[in-house]
Amino acid sequence: MTLFQLEVFLAVVQTGSFTRAGELLNASQSGVSHSIGDLEKELGIPLFTRNRKGVKLTDTGEQILAHVREIMNHTEQIHQAAAASRGMNSGTIRIGSFPSFSANVIPELFQAFRSHYPGVELLLFEGSYAEVEAWIKAGVVDLGFLADPSDGLDTVQLLSDPYVAILPANHPLRGHDMISIEQLTHEPFLSLKSGCEHLVMSAFQERGLSLNKQFEVAENSTILSMVEAGIGVSIVPSMILPAVPANVAVRPLHPPIIRNIGLSVLSQHMVSPAAAAFIKEAQTRFLEHT
């Protein structure tokens, strides 16, 4: 088998189509089919099932996928190490992130990194905490920003993001300097269902309290609009808030609820030179802001 065949294999997995894989690789549909056919013939097994809706990995293809991604990752590391030894900086870094971090931190961080390493391409994959963690473990991304990641990943801690209570502007609790979760137990509660809500739920459970949950909302902007309209109250990470939320009262919590955000990789010993440089850039920038 050849590296090109493995690249074609990944392109078909990514696009779900021989035609779109060809477009991605600037190759013909017949060329993609031929490469996959030769690979299947060499391995003696079908890698994809074909139908009118596209192509789908077979069970064996799913097992092989992780190995192919690992091979291509090592290949990228070889190219980057060779480029670095020639005094060049090149390569591609695939980065996972959750929406509030993408919106508030990623633009400045990417701009700073590109100013130092203009030859390195940055690809952003945005998803929930669970999706980003799964992408890291499956090799879809090289590294990812996560809040309180699970065991099994190497994580560099970057910053802490405190949660705050958000209330309608005319809410009776707006006059308090701080809000306790006990004060919110009987309020109509809007839960931000994006992965960050588990810390809020845990805080209530640890104190034997229950929530008067009214709605579960996926989008940050939606929950702000609903609080502004007086539909309920919520507890959210401070990072999701605009500098001055319109018609929303924002109060710190006592005791505090904090999510710790870090940059995670599958293994610190397996990162490419470009990814290692990105991690160092992130650490430097957050150290400057602490």
How would you summarize this macromolecular structure in one to three sentences?
This protein has helices at 3-15, 18-25, 29-43, 59-85, 99-104, 106-116, 129-138, 197-206, 220-228, 273-288; strands spanning 48-51, 54-57, 91-97, 120-126, 143-147, 154-168, 189-192, 213-217, 234-237, 248-252, 258-265.
Instruction: Give average pLDDT, whole number.
Output: 86
Structural class call reads: alpha/beta
Quaternary structure annotation: single chain
Element-level helix/strand string: HHHEEHEHHEHEEEHEHEEEH
The number of helical runs is: 10
Biggest beta-sheet profile: 7 strands, mixed
Number of strands: 11
- The general outline is elongated
- Assign a percent range to the helix content: 40-55%
Overall radius of gyration: 23 Å
CATH class bucket of one domain: Alpha Beta
User: In percent terms, what proportion of residues is strand?
Assistant: 15-25%
The name CATH uses for the topology of one domain is D-Maltodextrin-Binding Protein, domain 2
Distance between the termini: 50 Å
Note poorly predicted spans: none
CATH architecture of one domain: 3-Layer(aba) Sandwich
Question: What is the fourth-level CATH superfamily of one domain?
Answer: Periplasmic binding protein-like II
Organism: Paenibacillus mucilaginosus 3016
Protein name: Transcriptional regulator
GO molecular function: DNA binding; DNA-binding transcription factor activity
InterPro entries: HTH-type_LysR_regulators, LysR_HTH_N, LysR_subst-bd, WH-like_DNA-bd_sf, WH_DNA-bd_sf
